[in-house]
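INTERNAL TRANSFER SHEET
From: sequence group
To: structure group
Subject: Ammonia monooxygenase

Please process the attached sequence and return the structure record in the designated field. Keep the field labels unchanged so the import script can parse them.
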Amino acid sequence: MFRWLALLAVTSVVWAVMAALGLSAAALFASLVVAAVFAVRGAGPDRLPRPAGMLAQGILAVSVGLMVDTETLSALGSSWLPALGVCIATLVVSVAAGMLLAFHRDVDALTGALSMIAGGAQGLVAVSRELGGDERMVAVVQYMRVGLIIVTMPLVATLVFGAGTSGAASTGSGETPWYVDLLVVAGAIVVGIVVARLIRLPAPATLGPLAVSMGMELSGWIDGVTAPTVLLPIAFVLIGWQAGLAFTRDSVRAVGRVMPWAVALILVVGGVCALLGLLLSHVAGISLLEGYLATTPGGLSAVLAVSAASGANVTFVAAVQVVRLVIMLFAAPFGAKVFLALRARRSRNAERENASVS
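Return from structure group:
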């Protein structure tokens, strides 16, 4: 118990400092760094309990699912097909970058793909262990991507497209009491996990609540419901602890060796996504700035802030970003399941061949 209390206390202090400095996702970064330091020094708990990890996955999944409403999707209008194509192209480019990252001796193919998928960093880190990846590597590379995007995106938008960055996006607020929001979120998590396990979905704590919350939102049953503000920071802290507590001295050294390669690939993916944004602007008849912001691979809150401050079509940008986020969160578990199945089949075939030779 003392170790958990010490971890909570230090995380709270570092979180407060990072938040005061205006760092994005302060809760997540603080919990990851503090837990990693505790783990490497042998002062932290052994691991995050599995129910806590599943709770964090469920909260994130429901938060994303509640963003997929009819108003957001209708913003795509007749441009839904090119927007969907750009989202799928981003997934393909991300996975290809992950395969290149896997050429490094410290990264396997599955971990490389999960590390480089552009979108849903917190969700991917939360499910990476369950999918068979190295959650420590996934966490560091994903958060490095988010950090680089948050730093470079406003600069590119301002210097290249002349956007302003003084404003901030309004996320709005729910129209229902907080306790109703909390009951809806809890219900979506419980029902989603139970159903996902019954039909054997991969990553049930993510895909189940995501599908249930999306279905309720699109049906209009829960119009005005949002995830209570206090829940997301809790989920971020749990996810940061889950990844951080898994670090060892050897894994820290391995991450250090991989980072130069990862940063280079992140920049390449960002450049390709910018080109996809230019293509989207041409096909959909939107401005170059809106195309760039809609396809930026990460940093959703920063993207919406720049969109609002620059007078861009925030609704369209948000719609493309949300659609891509949902695609990434659904594609990663199913892709990992297929990959692991193929790898197991190859292993069995190799064993049969060796047996026949002997």
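Handover comment: The radius of gyration is 20 Å. The longest helix spans residues 314-357.
Transfer complete.
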